[in-house]
Amino acid sequence: MKIDRRKIVNRCGYDQNECMLLAKRLAACPDDTLISELKQISVWNYGKCELGLWVDVLDRLDAILEHAVTKVGRWMLRLDLPENASLVDDVVTILEFTGHLIEHSIYRYLYGSWNHILALFGSENMDILLAVLGLAYNFR
Predict the structure, then answer these.
(1) DSSP character for 138?
(2) How far apart are the first and last CA of the chain?
């Protein structure tokens, strides 16, 4: 996500313990189980928190998004290749989780994966486009 860690402040007036525990648990997850852990979070029950708590998790998710939006050939994104159906599912999961997180966080301006999110608008997959629009809506 490339957050400038100098901009992170700790001035949240909310109890962030549940969010902090979840962020630490997800940050400690191995790469092969991170997406399955994210899929289990369909409803946000962790309260409001600072986006800065999630830097380590968001950096890992940003790396997956970067891989997914790499161009193959002249116009096609890697996730649009027929053999990458699992990558599409992973990206949709990431976008849905990020939407929940953004909706329930403060200091949203710290989110730094917009270059990948905007690249996803070039996808041919309607599930991806719907998930991107859902995430963008949470920044309202």
Answers:
(1) T
(2) 20
- Give residue 34's pLDDT band: very low, low, confident or very high (50, 70, 90): very high
Question: What are 76's strand-pairing partners?
Answer: 72
Q: What SS3 state is found at 106?
A: strand
What pTM value is reported for the model? 0.89
Residue with tokens 């029950």: 45
Q: Which residue has the tokens 């996730």?
A: 79
- Residues 47 and 16 sit within 8 Å (Cβ to Cβ): yes
Per-residue pLDDT, averaged over 10-36, amounts to 86
* 73's tokens: 């050939």
In this structure, are residues 132 and 120 in contact, taking their beta carbons and an 8 Å threshold? yes
**Token code pair at residue 81:** 């290749």
